[in-house]
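does this look right to u?? adenine version
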Amino acid sequence: MRIDILSVMPELLRSPLEHSIMKRAQDKGLLEVHLHNLRDYGLGKNKQLDDYQFGGGAGMLMRLEPVVNCIEKLQAERTYDEIIYMTPDGQRLNQQICNRFSMKENIMILCGHYKGIDERIREHFITAEISIGDYVLSGGELPAAVLVDSIGRLLPGVLNDETSALFDSFQDNLLAPPIYTRPAEFRGWKVPDVLLSGNFPEIEKWRYEESLKRTQERRPDLLEGED
Ligand code: ADE
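got this back:
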C-alpha cells in the first residue's frame, strides 16, 4: 500500500512513522509513506498558504490553490482509491473503517491546519472525512499518524503473528479480554487458574465470556451495533 500525506508540517509525522511497527511495515516493503510539504506549493515569494475567511470570522483558512496543485500533481502519477481529509467534523474513526482502508492500494491524506480548508477542496477532491474523536487538535498531523498506524498494522505480513490483529479489541465489536504474563503469582495476585490449565477450549470460552462482560460493562454501545 502507498500513502501520500499532504501537510504544512510534515515534520510532525516523521517520528511516529520511523519507529516500531510502522518502520517494520516500510522496511518490509509492505507500506510506502510519502510526506509532501504544502509549503512547497505556497503562493508568491512568501509561499503563502493561508488567507482570511470571506464573510469575516476568526482564524485563517488554508487556501485552495496550493492544496489543489499538490493533489493534482500526485493524481497525474497514479489513481487514488481515497483522498481523506482529517477533520474533527468527519466520520469518527473505528475499526471497521480501518479495515476498509487497509484493503486499498493508494491513499492520500490531507492534514488540515489553521481554521480548516476552503470548502471547495472538500467538495471537489475529498472522498472521505475522518475524525479521530470529539475533540479538536491543532492540526491534522497527529490524527493522520493515528490513521496510518491503525491501517498499517492491518496489512498482511506487518504483524509478526498474523492472527494477532484479528483478536484486537473491536474486531468483533468486542473489547479484548484481560491478559497476563509471568509470574503466575505476584504479591498474592493470581492469574486466573483457567489460563494455566492447558485446556484450550475452556480458555477460549473464558476469553469470550470475559470479552463480553468487559464490553457490557464499558462499551454497551458496541453490542447495540453502534460505533
Ligand atoms: N484535526 C483537528 N482535530 C481533529 C480530530 N479530532 N480528528 C481529525 N482531525 C482533526
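The chain is about 35% helix and 20% strand. idk if thats expected tbh
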